[in-house]
Amino acid sequence: MKRLLVMAALACACGSGLVDHEGAGLPPPLGGGCTAPLHSCGGACVAQSVQACGAACATCTAPANAQPTCSGGACGYACAAPFLHCASGCCAATAIAAGGDHSCALVDGGVKCWGANNLLQLGSAAAGAFSAAPLEVPGISGASALAAGAGHTCAIVSGAVKCWGLGQGVAEVDGVSSAVLIAAGDRHACAATSTAVFCWGANDRGQLGDGTIGSGRDAAAPVSGSSGALSLALGRDHSCAIYGTAARCWGRDDHGQVGDGQPPVPAVALPAAVQQLTTAASLGAGELHSCALAAPDGSVSCWGANERHQVDSSGQDQPQARGLGGLKASAVAGGAASTCAIVSGGLECWGANDAGQLALGDTADRLGPTPVPGVAGVKQIALGSSHGCALLNDGSLQCWGKNDKGQLGTGSASAFSTSPVVVSAP
Fold this sequence. Notes:
Elements: H1 2-14, H2 21-24, E1 38-41, E2 44-47, E3 66-71, E4 74-79, E5 84-86, E6 89-91, E7 93-98, E8 102-107, E9 110-116, E10 130-136, E11 143-148, E12 152-157, E13 160-165, E14 168-172, E15 181-184, E16 188-192, E17 197-203, E18 214-222, E19 229-234, E20 238-243, E21 246-253, E22 265-273, E23 280-285, E24 289-294, E25 299-304, E26 318-328, E27 331-334, E28 338-343, E29 346-351, E30 366-371, E31 378-383, E32 387-392, E33 397-402, E34 416-422
């Protein structure tokens, strides 16, 4: 640095007698007699830095969990991993959701989304066709829960439900208030209050659960016979909820995804009890299959489409709940044709793996639950069509699988990743 300062001082002192400036192409002198990229601070020519940033020679500072930056002559800050930008500075995520080809996280009451945006599932046309880095969804603050569908996203904000996507910006859903749970499917969504489950959207397979098939609706209406739900999970065109300890499903049933033990039919318009499952505690749903954890030990059972062994090793569709050999978990989630569960803080996954969506380091399908190496301290799991994301206990986010639309949140798109990668802070 001393040698650089001496050279700069000589250049200033000698003026045009040192070189032919016009022919040499050197940068012009700046205010204070310094030559770019140096600038004058306290009578010396120095480089831009967090100790001497911009014309004011400012010392840059940063909030907690961040490092100061100086770029373009202006101070800023970069959040340290695993924290993301939030209204108060840098915050850890508190919830994760995965849709068809996009992902979202709840951060300090706001929502950040990344991945595909062809249907405005990131909340704004300004995001372009997709974003490989997390972007703030405009108009959302004070959110407490989050759900992602194939092409849309919903959040609970002070008991109200706000959704965006399917070609629409952020809007509040009419007909439901005091919501405590939220779930999203392909073209429909449901929310639970303390007294009932409410659904809205498409209804061509009876997925709204009001006894009708055909016309959808924009406003939420109660599911027939529902009460306050313990858990909600939605697949492509079917819905499931737990009332008390009984799991009930409705909607599309051509692969047994309703779980009522009956031969497959195109649609079931009213909630039906899932057979061979008596004490359900929580639910997870894939596109054409569903899973539940039994109380009190977390035993995992699944039912529905099984062509990629997303239910069990039989490879045959299952019209009622089937146990997975005593597997016990604290949470379960389904993708297009894959399933993952949180087991003792780690992950076990099975089913389709052509895009690395099982996070096992390869692209081979698995016939049954297989431990994911190197992942521990998992708090929440979410699966999209062919990708997955996990929220860890330290607030960090890891995603894996298909990444052609940036659904892994690393800042760049690629074909896929067969192992978990860390979501980057923009």
